[in-house]
């Protein structure tokens, strides 16, 4: 089980201990190993049924759903051409995403808004609009623009990073060194993020509904202070209180993005200014919880329980079901 599955398992364990019915649906099971049946009779409410190797559920009863780190669909290997495989993926997406949008439930996070909120330029736009500070930033696939930016900021004071650092294509944040200048022509292959390096202390702020859990991650005395993700085991981690204005602005960002859950990365300069770096709508929190005791897992489970307890709308089928989709 991966570390991210540990997050899911912890929340599910708490929900089940509280007597909640939980169904975990892995989208990677569809369509090769999963069944979907949507029935719209002439009278009565629709019936939405999904079945996978590990789940069998009537989703029209769902009131609370957790959308987290969804995996790609898996098609049957007997579909031998890419054209047929793409068609199967497209049709599966139409059916399942249409189903998800039809559910009378509250999502953490709403799938469509979650997808949009992953885009960093949009995050930066929203953060600036609510009054948060950002590092000076350039996104480009033009080598001359990158060289100009680095000249203005300075070698050793500029970082470059990827938009998404997935497990199979990991890219840590790196300082631009003199020897990197000869490689800048490679940005023509894909846009790269260049940013002014912000010296200071990292903060991971996990937002769960209206609750804000902030942890200071001091990597200044570690072997790689440029990117705390690389050295979090060496860093000093402790819970902290944010200034009220910063908390308010982060909650405004979350609401503007349509997110219920998110893990925000900030840096605090030596002068006390807080700088917004990004928000991960499906960010990890266990590394913070284990080092600080902040009750984040309990709060995620409590949030889903509160959503599950809400009163159903008139003429909507009642039931108690929390669904984890991944």
Automatic annotation (TrEMBL):
SUPFAM superfamilies: Glutathione synthetase ATP-binding domain-like. Pfam families: ATPgraspMvdD (PF21068), RimK (PF08443). The keyword Nucleotide-binding applies. Keywords: ATP-binding, Nucleotide-binding. It comes from the Bacteria. The keyword S-adenosyl-L-methionine does not apply. Residues 124-305 form the ATP-grasp domain. PANTHER family: BETA-CITRYLGLUTAMATE SYNTHASE B-RELATED (PTHR21621:SF0), RIBOSOMAL PROTEIN S6 MODIFICATION PROTEIN (PTHR21621). This is ATP-grasp domain-containing protein. It comes from Streptomyces tanashiensis.
């Amino acid at each position: 089980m991966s570390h991210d599955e540990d997050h899911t398992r912890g929340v599910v364990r708490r929900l089940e201990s509280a007597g909640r019915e939980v169904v975990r649906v892995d989208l990677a099971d569809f369509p090769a190993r999963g069944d979907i049946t949507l029935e719209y009779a002439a009278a009565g409410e629709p019936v939405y049924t999904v079945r996978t190797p590990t789940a069998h559920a009537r989703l029209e009863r769902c009131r609370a759903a957790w959308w987290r780190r969804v995996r790609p669909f898996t098609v049957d290997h007997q579909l031998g051409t890419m054209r047929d495989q793409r068609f199967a993926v497209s049709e599966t997406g139409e059916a399942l995403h249409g189903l998800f949008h039809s559910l009378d439930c509250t999502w953490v996070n709403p799938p469509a808004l979650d997808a949009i909120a992953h885009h960093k330029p949009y995050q930066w736009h929203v953060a600036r609009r609510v009054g948060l500070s950002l590092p000076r930033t350039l996104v480009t696939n033009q080598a001359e623009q990158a060289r100009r930016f680095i000249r203005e900021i300075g070698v050793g004071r500029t970082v470059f990073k990827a938009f998404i650092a997935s497990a199979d294509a990991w890219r840590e944040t790196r300082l631009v060194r003199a020897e990197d200048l000869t490689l800048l022509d490679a940005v023509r292959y894909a846009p790269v993020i260049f940013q002014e390096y912000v010296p200071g202390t990292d903060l991971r702020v996990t937002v769960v509904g209206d609750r804000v859990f902030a942890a200071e991650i001091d990597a200044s005395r570690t072997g790689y202070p440029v990117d705390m993700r690389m050295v979090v085991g060496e860093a000093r981690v402790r819970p902290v209180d944010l200034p009220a204005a910063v908390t308010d602005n982060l909650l405004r960002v979350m609401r503007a993005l349509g997110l219920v859950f998110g893990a925000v990365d900030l840096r605090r300069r030596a002068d006390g200014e807080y700088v917004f770096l990004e928000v991960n709508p499906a960010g990890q929190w266990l590394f913070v919880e284990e080092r600080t005791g902040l009750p984040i897992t309990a709060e995620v489970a409590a949030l889903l329980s509160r959503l599950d307890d809400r009163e159903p709308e008139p003429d909507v089928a009642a039931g108690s079901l929390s669904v984890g989709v991944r």
